[in-house]
Amino acid sequence: MLARIGRLIDHLGSKGVLSTLRALLRGNEFFLVPLALLVGVVAGAIVTLMSEIAQVAHVLIFGIPIDVRLSANEIVNPWAAMIAPAAGGLLLGLMEWSRRRWKISNAVDPIEANALRGGRLSLRDSVVVSSQTLISNGCGASVGLEAGYTQIGAGAASLLGRFFNLRRNDLRLIVGCGAAGAIAAAFGAPITGAFYACELIVGVYSVSSAAPILAASLSAALTARWLGGAPYSLNVPQVGAVTGEQYLAIIVLALIVAAVGIVVMRSSALVERVFNQPWLPVWLKTPIGGLCIGGMAILTPQVLAAGHGAMVLDLHRSMAMDVIAMIIGLKLCACLISLASGFRGGLFFASLFVGSLIGKLYAMVLQLPMFGIPLDPLASMLTGMATLGVAIVGGPLTMSFLVLEMTRSVDVTAAVLAACIVTSVCVRALFGHSFSTWRLHLRGETIRSANDVGWLRNLTVERMMRTDVASIPATATIAQCRGEYLLGSRQAVIAVDGLNRYCGIVLLPELFSGDLDSIADEIQVIELIKFQDVTLFPAMNVKSAMKVFDDAGAEVLAVTEAGGSRKVIGFLTESYARRRYAEELDQVTRGLLGQV
């Protein structure tokens, strides 16, 4: 390896620094690690900057002390609580109105980019999304900055990857490194950041991706610590061990939280429908949402922003059960209203906060005389925090390692991991989506994870079909068709009418059947056609095309123009479609496993 590096350095003068770096990155996965370290440093610096800007905005707008989180205040100025979210919402509403008027497409998030676009993210769009997230969080909307963190971290990583002309799989990996660095820097938890990238952004665990993602996470966490500390770090006191008999109570909590998560995600579509009324101007939706959030903030400031300060506060103090239930309900409503009305942000930390309150309430209920089941409230809060994070955000290992890095307790983490697995299985079986993929589903996408399916969509019938169509008028006789096409020259001939519209397919082995020799001059080929109502369209992907082949039982099909014209533009054989599918699938699998 060192000899190879030496030879490449000797050629710097002749090849150029940039071309040499590109060759290094494309030629050996080892050199992705330094690039991942750079991505992590950039992500850590951006996360720190964004968190400081948001805190300064809270101080200036709401008049809180500089060292106190917004949601940790006992009260906030009612005028500020009402005006700030509404004013921020108006700004965001005008931005959305301008986007629609100028017909600018929606920004692509890291999950969608890695699933459909091979890791290609627009840095400009990422900056816009991160700026909107800052505005939303800064004015007090009930959203976290983590969506902005991962967006800008992944966007910067994608820009670097495209600058160095990385391969598709390497570019997806570097985007995962950017997201990993953002989460690691936000929570001061490098292992959590690494598993976040593997589970949610890259979509797969592999040996080849471990080193770059861990390098990015570590460098981002260290950068954030050096610049002032992780904005979402949590200090959890010593947690007692979870005994065997308490596991059943924790599993029940996991089931309850799974149900809550599903209800929240289902409700998001209903709340969006309320704000998407045709008579409601797009620029007015977000201010209305801001007024709703402000009204709830007057009742309790814990609904404002991500809820980090409130979570730290509630971990260590006694609270009445009705107060906890009220905060849970208000926070969930505030989060749904924020996102449905047009505020930008994530539910990562909000789900952790609400989940911890659910866990705390659950432990208090179990301690009532009618139950009398002892359960450490702190262990219950950590379980609720992690399981609701799994239900809404996804990533059971991500949330389990977050608990491990917060508590340093293997016993508690083991119980939390069991609960996270139960929640994950229930949500996937009964709902099938995380909140991110559910919102994509509401927009018409069908992806359920960041697994790379973009290659599948790109492998269309138009790319695979042949255009040298063998056609014959449907009114031609069998003898005429035999005279024009010899047996073995084609698999099939496409019959068309006088306007070149598709009528059906004639298989040549059937055309040259000995049973037809005596009547070849009398019978028209239209008598032999098959698949009159079955054709392929150019935009179909290979998976859809293979389903058409299977349903029709055909070996070759015509490709016609979309729109009902039935004009023949090509044909495709089943054997070629399956071979191309197998080749592309093998290439993707090799890339995921780090094989050449």
Textual characterization of the structure:
The protein is mainly α and 596 residues long. It folds into 3 domains: 2-227, Clc chloride channel (Orthogonal Bundle), CATH 1.10.3080.10; 246-448, Clc chloride channel (Orthogonal Bundle), CATH 1.10.3080; 456-589, CBS-domain (Roll). It is 63% helix and 4% strand. The strands form 2 sheets. A 3-stranded mixed β-sheet has the order 1-2-3. It has a two-stranded antiparallel sheet with strand order 4-5. It is elongated, with a radius of gyration of 29 Å. It starts with a helix and ends with a helix. The model has no long low-confidence stretch (mean pLDDT 86).
Characteristic key phrases:
mainly alpha, 3 domains, 3-stranded mixed sheet, 596 residues, Clc chloride channel, two-stranded antiparallel sheet, elongated, CBS-domain, 5 strands
Task: Summarize, please.
This protein has 596 residues and is mainly alpha-helical. The chain contains 26 helices and 5 strands. Strand 4 (556-560) and strand 5 form a beta hairpin.
Summarize the helices and strands and which ones pair or pack.
Elements: H1 2-10, H2 12-15, H3 17-27, H4 32-62, H5 78-101, H6 110-116, H7 123-138, H8 146-163, H9 168-187, H10 190-202, H11 207-227, H12 246-275, H13 282-299, H14 308-315, H15 321-341, H16 348-366, H17 377-392, H18 396-407, H19 410-430, H20 435-442, H21 454-458, H22 461-464, E1 471-473, H23 478-484, E2 492-496, E3 502-507, H24 508-511, H25 542-552, E4 556-560, E5 568-573, H26 574-592
Parallel strand pairs: 1-2
Antiparallel strand pairs: 2-3, 4-5
Helix pairs in contact: 4-7, 4-8, 4-9, 4-11, 5-7, 5-13, 7-8, 8-9, 9-10, 9-11, 10-11, 10-18, 12-15, 12-17, 12-19, 13-15, 14-16, 15-16, 16-17, 17-18, 17-19, 18-19, 25-26
